[in-house]
């Protein structure tokens, strides 16, 4: 954006979208006719997340990213056709899905899973996989499985190189960059399975991983942390002042959803994006309830995993990497706070009236033009 006129045009477009479209979805939440861009938060940011709308998947305008802890995925699970069939169906609902907890010395389970995915797919999927990671004899791997008709891998995937003399992660995060084939969206993904006993420390260390990735890929603005962070219940205080709760990040998976398939109610699995990716996020994100989608009973569900996969969708053609325009990002975040899709941030309350509205967003752009 090069002129204030262009900034105001963009702001007005986003204002209309955010102030009009949330009415139906949040009619019982933060919207009211008296304050259509008010600050009252809805009880649940993703009211329809219990069941995914598969009719919206993999269109040519949005990209669906996800993360899935398959729970001790190895030869035993791979030998169960009924489980593999469900896993194949789940993976085909994504353009890119980050897989955690692959435990397989034979290195045969993951290729077998991708074969199942491709056996019933009209478009081929490919994968990249990390080395076996872990401080003990029980090693795990990460993988990204992706639809190579919608995205392509850029650069060489690698595990995070921990600084000399440090050991912040039980299993170092796995980093890979992708871009869409039809559009301009690209992003660097960082997946992790945080050790439950050290979840707080590992989550706080993820900010260093993002900084490393930003220095490694200086032309990239969109960084996405995704995976089983064990970011809830007795492992992590989800309301803490974590480094990942800072102003540089937006949590697409909020604290209201349950990502576990058993009787627990914990939001272990997360997708966290850096602020430049916020305008690319469609606001569609949450938990994929594959048990409801595929009519599975409790035992069939837990045979697949003790986690539900999480997802977030991004626009394919709205990436602003060449001109990140931080003031526009701040204005968009202010508008999202105004309609109740982000928590209140005092730094964006420009006129100091105790709430964030579309007026604050406009004032951000006006200040940037001076």
Care to give the gist of this entry?
The protein has 370 residues and is an alpha+beta fold. Helix content is 27%, strand content 22%. Strands 3-4-2-1-12-11 form a six-stranded mixed beta sheet. Strands 5-6-7-8-10-9 form a six-stranded mixed beta sheet, with helices on one face.
Report the uncertain regions.
1-6, 12-57
CATH fold title of the largest domain? Deoxyribonuclease I, Chain A
**CATH architecture assignment name of the largest domain:** 4-Layer Sandwich
Please count the helical segments: 10
Number of domains: 2
Your description of this structure?
This protein is an alpha+beta fold and 370 residues long. It contains ten helices and twelve strands. Strands 3-4-2-1-12-11 form a six-stranded mixed beta sheet. A six-stranded mixed beta sheet has the order 5-6-7-8-10-9, with helices on one face. The model is unreliable at 1-6 and 12-57 (pLDDT under 50).
Which properties best describe this structure?
370 residues, 6-stranded mixed sheet, 12 strands
Secondary-structure map with pairings?
Blueprint: H1 4-20, H2 22-25, E1 62-73, H3 75-78, H4 81-91, E2 96-102, H5 109-119, E3 125-129, E4 141-147, E5 151-159, E6 174-180, E7 186-193, H6 199-216, E8 223-228, E9 249-251, E10 269-274, E11 281-287, H7 290-293, H8 298-304, E12 310-315, H9 326-338, H10 358-369
Parallel strand pairs: 1-2, 7-8
Antiparallel strand pairs: 1-12, 2-4, 3-4, 5-6, 6-7, 8-10, 9-10, 11-12
Helix pairs in contact: 1-9, 1-10, 4-5, 9-10
């Amino acid at each position: 954006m090069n002129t204030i006129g262009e900034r105001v045009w963009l702001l007005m477009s986003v204002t209309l979208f955010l102030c009009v479209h949330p009415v139906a979805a949040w009619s019982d939440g933060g919207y009211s006719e008296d304050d259509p861009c008010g600050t009252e938060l809805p009880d649940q940011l993703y009211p329809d997340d219990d069941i995914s709308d598969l009719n919206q998947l993999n269109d040519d305008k949005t990209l669906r990213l996800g993360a899935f802890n398959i729970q001790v995925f190895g030869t035993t699970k791979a030998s169960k056709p009924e489980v593999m069939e469900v896993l194949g169906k789940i993976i085909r609902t994504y353009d890119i899905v980050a897989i955690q907890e692959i435990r397989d010395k034979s290195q045969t389970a993951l290729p077998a899973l991708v074969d199942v995915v491709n056996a019933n797919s009209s478009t081929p999927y490919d994968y990249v996989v990390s080395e076996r990671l872990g401080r003990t004899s029980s090693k795990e791997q990460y993988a990204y499985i992706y639809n190579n008709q919608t995205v392509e891998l850029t650069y060489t995937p690698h595990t995070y190189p921990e600084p000399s003399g440090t050991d912040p992660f039980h299993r170092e995060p796995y980093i890979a960059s992708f871009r869409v084939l039809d559009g301009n969206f690209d992003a660097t993904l960082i997946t992790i399975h945080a050790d439950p006993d050290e979840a707080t420390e590992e989550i706080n260390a993820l900010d260093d991983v993002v900084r490393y990735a930003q220095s490694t890929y200086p032309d990239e603005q969109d960084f996405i942390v995704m995976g089983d962070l064990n970011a809830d219940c007795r492992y992590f205080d989800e309301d803490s002042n974590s480094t990942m709760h800072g102003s540089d990040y937006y949590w697409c998976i909020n604290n209201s959803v349950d990502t576990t398939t058993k009787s627990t109610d914990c939001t272990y699995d997360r997708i966290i994006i850096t602020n430049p990716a916020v305008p690319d996020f469609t606001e569609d994100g949450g938990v994929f309830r594959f048990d409801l989608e595929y009519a599975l009973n409790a035992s069939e569900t837990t045979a697949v995993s003790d986690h539900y996969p999480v997802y977030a969708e991004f626009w394919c053609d709205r990436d602003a990497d060449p001109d990140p325009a931080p003031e526009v990002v701040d204005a968009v975040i202010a508008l999202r706070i105004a309609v109740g899709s982000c928590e209140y941030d005092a730094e964006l309350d420009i006129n100091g009236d105790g709430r964030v509205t579309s007026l604050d967003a406009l004032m951000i752009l006006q200040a940037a033009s001076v």
